[in-house]
Design a protein that fits this description.
4 helices; Glutathione S-transferase Yfyf (Class Pi), Chain A, domain 2
Length: 99
């Protein structure tokens, strides 16, 4: 549903939450799937490797895809928020994610 709405909004000239190019759209799809299949399935201490992966990707950049916020950022943030609220406690801090 979110994919459809973002694609529809982009056609109307709104900020492209689904990416500006075909490559960015493919990357947004990748992160949406990652947030659903990997991050949303993580709980507590078992989520360290998944969060470290996101941490490594975000190291040199601000957004997951392109130079502005996309649906990918919103989906991954939501999944990470769920992990943190389920009692995640890392032995090693993740400074970029601030968890």
């Amino acid at each position: 549903m979110a994919r459809y709405l973002c694609r529809l909004a982009s056609r109307g000239g709104a900020t492209p939450l689904y990416g500006s190019t075909n490559l960015e759209k493919a990357e947004v799809d990748h992160w949406l799937e990652y947030s659903i299949t990997v991050l949303s399935q993580q709980q507590g201490a078992t989520s360290t490797s998944a969060l470290e992966h996101v941490e490594a990707i975000l190291g040199p950049r601000v957004y997951l895809v392109g130079y502005e916020m996309t649906l990918a950022d919103l989906a991954v943030f939501s999944a990470i928020r769920g992990i943190v609220s389920s009692g995640f406690n890392s032995k090693d801090p993740l400074p970029i994610l601030q968890v």
